[in-house]
Every structure is written in C-alpha cells, then in structure tokens.
Amino acid sequence: MAMANLARRKAINLFNNTVSSDAARYSFALSSTFTRGFASGSDENDVVVIGGGPGGYVAAIKAAQLGLKTTCIEKRGALGGTCLNVGCIPSKALLHSSHMYHEAKTSFAKHGVKFDNVEIDLPAMMGQKDKAISNLTKGIEGLFKKNKVTYVKGSGKFLSPSEISVDTIDGGNTVVKGKNIIIATGSDVKGLPGITIDEKRIVSSTGALALTEIPKKLIVIGAGYIGLEMGSVWGRLGSEVTVVEFAPDIVPSMDGEIRKQFQRILEKQKMKFMLKTKVVAVDTSTDIVKLTVEPSSGGEQTVLEADVVLVSAGRIPFTSGLGLETIGIETDKIGRIPVDKRFTTNVKGVFAIGDVIPGPMLAHKAEEDGVACVEFIAGKEGHVDYDKVPGVCYTHPEVASVGKTEEQVKESGVAYRVGKFPMLANSRAKSIDDADGLVKIIAEKETDKVLGVHIMCSNAGELIHEAALALSYDASSEDIARTCHAHPTLSEAVKEAAMATYDKAIHI
C-alpha cells in the first residue's frame, strides 16, 4: 500500500511539473506576442475595428479575450449594425408578432381557443420590436465593458494604415491608432435606377420595419429572402402583397425543388408573384404609387398601383467615406474588398471581414469571419468554410439550407442520391396542425457523404444546425439516420430523410 501511495505521489508531481512547465512556456509565448502594445504606455491599440455590427463587435470581443488591446468604432451610436438595428432582429420581431396575430385570427378556433375579436395594435407591435433592439444593443455594450473593449462612437476614416480619424457623434474628432485595423462596415441597401427611396412610400427594408400604417396594397421589388420576409409580415397584417421579380424564380440560390414548393405555399397565403418582370418607371405624383412594369425580355407594359413599394433588390458593400483610396486599398467592380485566406487586404496591417468581402452577406458568416480574423492576428489559426454556412428564410414555414443544392451537385458531375421526407408524415407536425414542407438530403452515391440538406417547415432555422454539424464532420446520411432522435419532434423528419437517402424511411 505504501509503495502504491508513493508511486501515486510521484505520478502527481510529474504531472504538476509538466503542467507548470507548459503553462510557463505558454505564458512566455503570450507575453512575447502581446505585451508590447501595453508596455510602452502608447495609445496605440493592437486591434482597431471599424464597424460595430455582428462581424465587428464579435471581432472586437474576441480580440480582447485573446489579450489584445482593442478599440471598436461605430458610427451609428448603437452597436449591432444593420442586423440588430434595422435588419435581422427587428424583422424577426415583426415576423413573430404578425404570425401570432395571423394564428389568432385564422387557427386558434381549431385548437379550441375562441374569443370575440382580434385587433392589431401596430404601435404596440412596433414598441415590442424597439424594446428588443434596445435591450440587445445595451447587452453588447455590457459585453464591451466586461471584456475591456474601448468603444468610440463616430465615423472613421483612414489617415494611414495605422491611423483612423473619427468624427464623433458629439461633434468632436479623435485619432485612433492601431497596429492592425479591421474593416467591418457591413453593407447597405442596393438601389434601383430611376427609383428614389424616401422611406415613406418607396421604402427599403429599413422603412418597411417602421411603417406607421398597414398599407392596403404593398408591392415588393425583389423575391429574395428580405423581400419575402417583409412581404409576409405585412401580408399577415392585411396588406395585399405583390412581388415583382426580374428572374424566372424566387430566391435563385435556393434548391429548385424546395423553391417551387415554397412558392406554392406563399401563393396559398395570398402572396402574388410577377416573375420575369422588370420595373421601368415609377410615378409618385399622386397619393397612389404607380409602377410601370414589363416582361424582363421586353414587351407589353402594365401599370401596378400600391400604397407602399418595398425595394428589396439586394445589398452592396458599405465602403464609401472610409478613405480607402488614401492608403491604396483595392476593391473589385462591385465594391468588395479582396482578401486572402487570413482576411488580409493588399495593404499590410489592414484586414476586412463580413459583407465588405466576397461571400454570403449573412450576419453569422460575418461573426465567423471576425473570430477567424483576430485569431490569425493573434498568431493562431482561424478558418471559415463558406460552403457550409447555413441560410434561413424566416417566413412561415421557414426554409433553411446548408451545403449544395441538387442543381449544384448535378452540375459538378458527382453521382448522388436524394432522400426526402414530407412533414405531413411527421407526428409532431401533424399534432400541432403545422405540416407544410419537407426535408431533403443529398448525399454522394459512392460514399454516402452528405453534400446538402434543405428543410422547409416551422422552425427549420433551428433544425438546420444538425445538418451543418454533419457536413462539418463529413458525416454520411447513415450517420444521421442511426442517431437516436427524440419522439415526437420535428427533427425526426431529418432522421427519416436520412434513412430515405441511404436505405428506406420507416414512416412513409
């Protein structure tokens, strides 16, 4: 027993000495890499981030967590960028509120919930949205304080690759210095020739989130994610919604089969579509907005009337006014900043992330960029796989996808199999009377490796992350199928689709 105890103590001492030695080496490495910016007493930062949106504020927090002295510059005076202030968050608030109203009006009685009248209190609905925005913005400021990120409110402009002149929102000016500068200024609404957005009758997504009255007729120009989401909000609240799209299909990036079923569901919700159609003129001289449209290929013109027109033709990188030309930063023909795999621009010490660089313009993609970028700056390794970034359209049902569409797989020449499972056969979906949609899985025929997953159902935006994890680890459809899924859940439809991909589903 004594010998055993002695051996145990020796083993513990050896372990502790090893850990202490490793910790000392790690501490020395950190001090060698990071402490120079603190020792001199200079005001120079290790990292300066221009932009406080999802990419920028996440990059700033991560940099501070890695021990880098960090400052974030944000012109809005409210953190969170477009996403939190006039994009993702307010739109989801209104989507949820409008869905609750629509369900109360059309579905509650079937579930035995009855009442005399349902009314819309639009100011209260907007107030709930604004409260959510305010709370989340303050939450990010709290995270900045917790992680000791310096927050400068104002518009930044390059003086040199290491100096940013900031016109602060209180009317002053200051110069912020940094060894590494990250451009994270996001994107702006893409306009259309001949159409002036006044955010009253001709609105962008920003104006569509702040309407003070429910329009009787709403025309949406553009059948992308944002246009369909905003069309859904106001359609549920009583607007007659018409979507005008230049392309032959809605949401061109979506899997073709899913897209067609999605459009049919939206049409059942009374959303009208005019595809292969372009707007050639807009008349706002009267109380009613008049749009002249014609086929995309040319032809007979038609005049459409609306109370409000939403321009939802996409977004463009926001890089104007940053003084990029002062330091020689290159941009491509649509204004994006080319970067290498470490997010470095053509100017040493200057980096770019998020919507200002190539890749999907998504908040969560920008966050991943921000983390990876500062990891590279800190001497670590960062990585973002843009082929495995999930996308979600937050209509009802939601449509979510990750990986390749069937069209993309077919074009690549890879032999593949497809497995599908309808939500009509899912017990949870049937029990809650919400069974529109399906799950579709595409896998390589020879190896069964999952190549793409597409989900259309309520809460598809939550279900998609099982698929994202599967793709990240090169899982097979059989791997998903042999993973036990709780019953009854919507996620069982993913399991069944996986079973249908490599073998046969059980419940259909």
Automatic annotation (TrEMBL):
| Cofactor remark | Binds 1 FAD per subunit.
Task: Provide this UniProt record's keywords sorted from A to Z.
Answer: Disulfide bond, FAD, Flavoprotein, NAD, Nucleotide-binding, Oxidoreductase, Redox-active center
Signal peptide range equals: none
Keyword ATP-binding listed: no
Catalyzed reactions per annotation: N(6)-[(R)-dihydrolipoyl]-L-lysyl-[protein] + NAD(+) = N(6)-[(R)-lipoyl]-L-lysyl-[protein] + NADH + H(+)
Q: What is this protein called?
A: Dihydrolipoyl dehydrogenase
Q: Which domain of life is it from?
A: Eukaryota
Instruction: Look up the further comments and give them.
Output: The active site is a redox-active disulfide bond.
Asked if the keyword Nucleotide-binding belongs to this entry, the reply reads: yes
Mention any Pfam family matching this sequence. Answer: Pyr_redox_2
Q: What would you give as a GO molecular function for this chain, any one?
A: dihydrolipoyl dehydrogenase (NADH) activity
Biological process (GO) annotations held by this record are: 2-oxoglutarate metabolic process
Every copy of the FAD/NAD(P)-binding domain together lies at 46-370
Q: Which family does it belong to?
A: Belongs to the class-I pyridine nucleotide-disulfide oxidoreductase family.
The entry's NAD(+)-binding residues are G222, A223, G224, Y225, I226, G227, L228, E229, E245, G314
Cofactors (names): FAD
Enzyme Commission number? 1.8.1.4
Q: What class of enzyme is it?
A: oxidoreductase
